[in-house]
Specification:
The chain has 887 residues and is an alpha+beta fold. The protein folds into four domains: 59 residues; 216 residues, no CATH class; 308 residues, no CATH class; 194 residues, no CATH class. It contains 25 helices and 22 strands. The strands form two sheets. Strands 1, 2, 3, 4, 5, 6, 7, 8, 9, 10 and 11 form an eleven-stranded mixed β-sheet that branches. A six-stranded mixed β-barrel has the order 14-15-20-17-19-18. Helix 16 crosses helix 24 and helix 21 packs across helix 23.
Length: 887
């Protein structure tokens, strides 16, 4: 017979012919061997027996020949996949449970990775975003390390820097659009001429600003966001060149930004992503007050320049400014240059990474569960594996087949996990707080799909290795003798180890969730310093064209207060320049005692707030000493101030603040000047920036003595504040139909939003912990139930020999809870090591909080006890006669 060429590639059409020829050739060689032994004098039967011994397992020889053929790996893979599918079809319940378990773990990982990818890994949607940097001002003596810059500071950086291609600034305010449709107050970005060009984003229509648009006296121009263009102007394709009236002034529309354009800054930069229009300052920024810090400054590095080099240059420029302005706020000023993307995700990165680690632990629990399922299934497959090995299958071949089954199972779980992951991602986006605008870039893209595939593949290998090793490493002869009914002790120990691992990982996740829940509870009970219940708020912006002077604005707003106070159901009315927890940046500046020498003046910072009389009562802020402002505290009288307890204690420790004088920044005709005022009252400190921090001290000024461009009214009602919305709108329209109301909402909504980020993190942590708890409970139940089923005969014999049923219960529970106790102990150690990493996410609770650790240990133990008790009861009911009959 012509020998076969094992290296000759086979196509599907010739595969059966090749197999037939292989059988014929092996049969030919076998018969030749028999003939040779007979020729040596051996009897035919003995010669055939010896030939079989010398020839070895026929199937093993066939496999060796097949593996020499090119393209064998593809044929083998397809064969393994077909076999794996048949095995899964034979056990649909097992397949469904395993796929669902993996889908939960992989789906959670996919959802959180979509957030990680969109928020941290994906570059910002600007041209060459790695060259964009945010330049913060550090005022060390005032304790302000992430402060904005002044106009002169930014101009100095522009002129003196050699490593930046450009340095530009932005400040966000608001404006009343009144020329088209109903009056509307919009978020307005005031930018320097080349700010938008610096980001490298081309307009969808028209052009961007240039340096000429920023000069004092330049023609008023405006650029619209895509949303404002579509909503207010009906997506007019001829919009460029038309005009719009903002704050009573006519602006020419020169461009429209792209649909997906948004500003992406860190939350504490106070640059909201949904700015609806842009205009230039049209002012000489170099001539502004040098200590009036309000600009957020962005720079673009020249090619090849690193952040470290740019930071060193900025520090050098700060040193020059300190030398040139000896008795100014520049005395201790420095700059800090940070990558824009890194700074943007600085606050959210710890939470996202913690959640990513959490879903990784959930996936490990899922893998452990599926590994336990595979081991539990081993009792029905031991004989099959032993027969395959007896027929010549190598250990590597068996492991490959079993890994193919586990990887196929994992890929099916990954496919289901993609559906759960997509749903989970949308759930996350629906729950995300408004402050996490950076999450708008989260989407289910190819990177997420690739990650899901990689996780599925790795998971299949991870949970498939141990069962594969157990299957292929047993005693083949003993397995065949016992009919596959034996239980390998090492396998039982391995299953117990897997359960302990599940419990430990679940303990870690439950601790993290418990700490986040306690943080949120603390936030619910934190004293904000005011009572926002039954308070309706709204903002007004008076157009300068119709109300050009401070007296004009003061007269209108005071009269508005009186009209609102006369409405039925209103208890009191006040107003303040910026409400607590508003998303606009608040006005803050230096203050000092009247007799402070010049060298010590720019050391202390405080929030400055202009208020109408009655604000403290309407907001529920207690007056500790002195009095509130009155209508008589106008521009013709001595300047008066109300300070909070924090400022009073820091400035005059152990003394009364009443009657003391402070030098503060004052607003006058739209600009800032300094003036001295007398303290007439002290109020309780109110948290205005965030609930987790006291923030800066507060200086309150009479609006009549320091008018601002925007005022937020606080209307304390006798019932539900929402019932007064219509009456308030009607009253404002009756007073002036062109005045746009903005942010008409209860004060409680601001407080809710202040808690939103912590609530979001808490919900995600709780969801992961609940998922881990469910998976761990299933794992504990499965292992205990399997152990009981394998030891059913033993239990019956024990009962027949006199053991009480409570002894059987005690035996099963002690064995099951032993692995749980080990898991809790390991989880405790892991938690003590890992929880300090999330300390920055906590408030009012330590990472090693004993109450949380004790409660989680008790709760997890109780859940595990229930999971063990159910199969233990089944063990108590074993019929000893049935067990003896089987023996």
């Amino acid at each position: 017979m012509k020998p076969m060429n094992p290296m000759k590639p086979m196509n599907n059409g010739r595969h059966e012919n090749w197999e037939r020829e292989l059988r014929e050739e092996l049969s030919h060689h076998f018969e030749k061997q028999v003939e040779a032994l007979i020729a040596e004098g051996m009897a035919p039967e003995e010669a055939r027996r010896q030939a079989k011994l010398q020839f070895g397992a026929v199937e093993g020889v066939k496999q060796d020949c097949r593996e020499q053929r090119r393209g064998f790996w593809l044929d083998a893979l397809l064969a393994d996949l077909r076999y794996a599918l048949r095995m899964l079809r034979k056990s649909p319940a097992f397949a469904a449970i395993a796929i669902l378990t993996l889908a939960l773990g992989i789906g959670a990982n996919t959802a959180i990775f979509s957030v990680l990818n969109g928020v941290i890994l994906k570059p910002l949607p600007y041209a060459q975003p790695d060259r964009l940097a945010l330049i913060w001002t550090d005022l060390k003596s005032a304790g302000q390390t992430r402060a904005p810059s002044s106009g002169p500071d930014m101009i100095d950086l522009q002129r003196r820097s050699r490593l930046f291609e450009g340095v530009e600034g932005i400040w966000v305010g608001s404006s009343a659009i009144t020329s088209v449709g109903e009056p509307e107050q919009v978020k307005l970005g005031f930018v320097t001429g080349d700010f938008l060009s610096l980001l490298g984003v081309a307009p969808a229509r028209g052009r961007l600003f240039n340096a000429q648009d920023n000069f004092k006296g330049a023609a008023p121009t405006i650029i619209l966001s895509d949303g404002l263009w579509r909503r207010r102007f009906g997506a007019d394709p001829q919009i460029v060149g038309k005009t719009v009236k903002a704050d009573g002034e006519v602006f020419t529309i020169i461009g429209v930004m792209p649909e997906n354009f948004r500003l992406i800054f860190a939350e504490d930069a106070n640059i909201p992503p949904d700015v609806q229009a842009f205009m230039t300052f049209r002012d000489d920024l170099a001539r502004q007050e040098r200590d009036s810090n309000y600009l957020r400054v962005v720079g673009r590095l020249k090619p090849g320049v690193t952040i470290a080099q740019a930071d060193a240059e900025a520090q050098s420029i700060a040193a020059q400014l300190r030398a040139e302005y000896l008795v100014d706020s520049k005395q201790d000023e420095s700059f800090e240059v940070l990558p824009l993307q890194e700074d943007t995700v600085r606050a959210i990165r710890p939470a996202v990474l913690a959640l990513f680690v959490g879903v990784g632990l959930v996936l490990l629990i899922s893998c452990a569960n599926v590994a336990n399922l595979l081991l539990a299934r081993s009792g029905t497959r031991q004989r099959e594996i032993a027969l395959r090995a007896a027929m010549g299958a190598t250990r590597g071949r068996i492991i490959r087949q079993l890994l193919t089954e586990s990887v196929l199972l994992s890929l099916l779980g990954g496919a289901a996990g993609l559906i759960l992951g997509w749903w989970g991602m949308n759930w996350l986006l629906a729950l995300r707080p408004k402050s996490l605008g950076v999450m708008e870039s989260v989407q289910f893209d190819f990177a997420v799909l690739g990650y899901a595939f990689a996780v599925s593949l790795i998971a299949g290998i991870v949970f498939g290795l141990a069962p594969a090793a157990e299957y292929s490493g047993g005693d083949m002869i003993e397995t065949l003798k016992s009919g596959g009914k034996g239980v390998v002790a090492g396998k039982s120990r391995f299953r117990t180890l897997l359960v302990a691992s599940e419990v430990a990982l679940s303990f870690v996740l439950l601790i993290g969730s418990g700490l986040m829940i306690r943080t949120f509870v603390r936030l619910l009970n934190v004293d904000s310093g005011f009572n926002g219940d039954r308070v309706l708020t709204f903002q007004l912006s008076l157009p300068p064209a119709r109300y050009p002077t401070d007296p004009d604005r003061t007269r209108v707003l005071y009269q508005m207060q009186k009209n609102l106070a006369a409405l039925p159901g209103v208890e009191s009315v006040g107003a303040v320049h910026r409400l607590p927890f508003d998303d606009y940046v608040n006005w803050y500046s230096f203050y000092w005692k009247a007799d402070t020498p010049p060298a010590e003046q720019n050391k202390l910072l405080a929030d400055h707030r202009a208020t109408l009389p009655g604000f403290f009562h309407s907001m529920g802020i207690p007056i500790v000493a002195g009095r509130d402002f009155s209508d008589s505290d106008d521009a013709t009288r001595q300047r008066v101030l109300v300070v909070d307890e924090l400022l009073a204690q820091r400035t005059w420790p152990g003394e009364s603040a009443l009657g003391k004088e402070l030098n503060v920044e004052v607003c006058k005709e739209g600009g800032f000047v300094r003036g001295t005022g007398v303290v007439i009252g002290v109020v309780k400190h109110a948290r205005n920036l965030q609930l987790t921090d006291d923030g800066r001290p507060q200086v309150y000024q009479s609006f009549a003595q320091s008018p601002r461009e925007i005022l937020a009214y606080t209307v304390r009602t006798m019932g539900d504040p929402q019932t007064l919305v219509g009456a308030v709108r009607a009253e404002v329209a009756r007073f002036d139909a062109d005045l746009p109301l903005a942010k008409v909402r209860p004060m409680s909504e601001y407080v809710r939003l202040a808690r939103a980020a912590s609530r979001f993190t808490m919900l995600l942590a709780a969801a992961l912990a609940a998922l881990a708890l469910i998976l761990a409970s299933i794992g504990i139940y499965g292992v205990t139930s399997y152990s009981v089923s394998q030891r059913r005969n033993e239990m019956g014999i024990r009962i027949a020999l006199g053991a009480q049923r409570r002894d059987i219960l005690k035996l099963v529970l002690s064995q099951g809870m032993g692995s749980v106790a080990a898991g809790v102990s390991i989880g405790l150690l892991l938690s003590l090591l890992l929880m300090p990493a999330i300390a920055g996410l906590l408030f009012g609770v330590r990472p090693t909080d004993a109450l949380t650790y004790g409660a989680v240990a008790l709760f997890l133990s109780c859940v595990a006890l229930v999971a063990c008790y159910v199969p233990a009861r089944r063990a108590m009911r074993v019929d000893p006669m049935t067990a003896l009959r089987y023996e």
